[in-house]
Amino acid sequence: MSSIAQKKGFGATLWDYLTTVDHKKIAILYLITGGFFFIVGGIEAMLIRIQLLKPDNDFVAAGLYNEIITMHGTTMIFLAAMPLLFGFMNAAVPLQIGARDVAFPFLNSLGFWMFFFGGIFLNLSWFLGGAPDAGWTSYASLAISSPGHGIDFYALGLQISGGGTLIAGINFLVTIINMRAPGMTYMRMPLFTWTTFVASALILFAFPPLTVGLFLMIFDRMFGANFFDHTMGGNTIIWEHLFWIFGHPEVYILILPAFGIFSEIFSTFSRKRLFGYSAMVFATVLIGFLGFMVWAHHMFTTGMGATANAIFAVATMAIAVPTGVKIFNWLLTMWGGSIKFTTPMLYAVGFIPSFVAGGVTGVMQASAPLDYQLHDSYFIVAHFHYVIVGGVVLGLLAGLHYYWPLMFNTMLNEAMGKITFWLFFLGFHLTFFIQHFLGLLGMPRRVFTYGEDQGWDLFNAISSYGAIFMAAGVIVLVVNIVMTIAKNVPVGRDPWGDGRTLEWAIPQPVPFYNFKQIPLVRGLDTYWIEKQEGNVEGMTYAEPIGDIHMPNNSIIPFIMSLGLFVGAFGALYNGEQPWAIPVLGLGLIITFAAMATRSLKDDLGYHIHKEDLLNEKGGKH
Amino acid sequence: MAHDVHTHVKSNIEFEYARRRAANEMRGQVTTFAIMIFLTLIAFTMVLAGFSAYLVIPFILLLAAIQVVLQLYYFMHMSHKGHETASLFLYSGALIAAITVLTFLTIVWW
User: Which domain holds residue B62?
Assistant: First the structure.
């Protein structure tokens, strides 16, 4: 049961991770899987840039190129960015609010395994007759007539992994509402917890439309329905609406936790309280709410009419206001602070101009008449890479360096971290800044090649060379990670020296029950307050030492998700293979049997006894 | 925690209070149940009576909305204390859904 290093065989470790319900280990699982898909998506990005390096290139064929761009977008959004964010949420949020675990540890595990199997299923399309090729938005007008099974993999894979995301989101909502330590009022929660909370609420409201859309797509493609076929009375535009009613909040689901990570980093390394905390909270909630009012700005050219376009344009521009509030608060947090330029702080400082650039082009596109010019051009590609890479990916890399010591009790090499930052940061601007001009010069997005002498040759070459810098940065990061793991030098509690929030107050390595005694929170920046008062323990306790109730590990979430994975193959080959329906049934039987086992068999967990906690082993078995 | 089992003997007054509350609760539940059955009867009667569809459909939707509210507040105990967060989420979700539907009905699909 112990999470603390004992010598264990590979098999035992593997079994431990397959069955774990501990949020800290699930965080590591998310990190590994998300990191893997980040590399896969990155390789796809490199293939795109190689193909566009020179005009009339034939490095990949047109059809394969469509598959690569589709999988690049889908992988990066659903299988890399979101799981990596969930990794940091799992690692930090329960510790930040003084909880021993998330509210539903079993569901936490189920959420991860559903994401895992959905992602694997989606990527198996490469080996089973071709990947999806209708773009990451998979507009129905195109997707319905796509030959082969690519789109089926897309719909089924995202359905399974989307279920996992929904479960994880609900879990964090319940955790943050119910599991806060005594004294941890809403307005004392660290900003990362706040942004996780709002992002989880967005997941709760935004993922059901995607689920509906994907089910309609699944039935249209695999079971002979006609929701999107206008010749049969369907409507192909419904997909676009459903997708963007989900898709726009999705952007905020990604960026808000990144904002949270940056807020923590700014205040830690400026060694100041976050400027305008309550305004930050208000801005976060407002961005979350407005995120649902703007979906149709992705569809200005669909022909909704001037009224709809005007209203959605104004609503979109309104989002710039709370975002601006945040930018100014970060600047004012640094203002007059005693700034320490660690690797995470470099990312945070680099994030501000990059994200503002992405935001400004966003406001440009919000203006519907201008969007008619920019739509489906490289300007759009430049814009969304500025917000997603310049915002979310920089946030993920910053979070990786910042939370690494919390997760692994070791520190990534700072010198190499800074090399990664400069390579990645310069490469990013080199790749994407020039794409704005490619767009303005008329280059459409999603084209697999272009003719010579249209003024695009040099800019595309520059963009491709920039991508090499980004790849080099990621390679340095991987080397850094491998070296850090190999050296394995423990760094102990509060390794940055300036930790402000509760997660840094816990002794390292974090005990598997997190808190021997639940802490009493006496204000914002709990640990900072205790440090100022010279409390060497790092926290004031809210309860005497007593028995701790812990959940048992379980393999059931893995089996439940495996059943869906198996069943998805049945749905995919429906009408083509005689074994399709039996396999679909088999998969569903596995899942429902696992659910029945979970429901009918009482699993009440176990207690760590007070006596074990009091002896020097600290509750270890 | 788990070991020191706490027993509490209710005083007469406490017992009376709890009983009265339970009785009130029960009365509320039964009344709500009766109202809901009645609303359902109205809905069926309207269809059977053959009124115009333009009257029947909005009216049944209205009845459905009332049923949902009764269900949430009386059968699912949202009227009790400690459901503030749940209400917040429910109402914000309903608000967002309503705005979305309103958008479709008024400006998007002209």
Answer: 1-79
